[in-house]
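Deliverable D5.2: sample structural annotation.
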Amino acid sequence: MHLTLHTDYALRLLMYLALRPGRRCTIEEVAGAYGISRNHLMKVALTLAREGFVDSLRGRSGGLRLAMAPQQIRLGAVVRRTEDSFDLVECFDAASNTCVIAPGCRLKQPLAAAAQAFLGVLDGYTLADLTAPPATARTLGRLLGTA
């Protein structure tokens, strides 16, 4: 299983915001802290705002902050809403747009079960788990210039 850069940045943005409760953070600030693309992070922030994880406010005193407590944000939910697909293999023949072994293939079911197991594990964790206990928060804070 390989997550997209979009999901990676979404998780990073949420962690950054969780370490700054109640404070609005700008895209420029977060992009600078992680050394990542501002434009890509803007798309990620739009997705997270649309999905209800982040509250976004435009303007001079605007920025991003978590829309709910970190304990309420399940990692599985974030991944489901930021990934386009959980298909682990390409099942289509490009020429005919159908799988050539579809009638006898039994691979799809175990791969679907594996993807569900992966998401099930992530469902067991929240954003709070990524930013706690305090030692973890302090370490991340130092790395991101907030401690």
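Annotation notes: The domain at 5-143 is CATH 1.10.10.10 (Arc Repressor Mutant, subunit A). The chain is about 50% helix and 5% strand.
The annotation will be released with the project's public dataset once the embargo ends.
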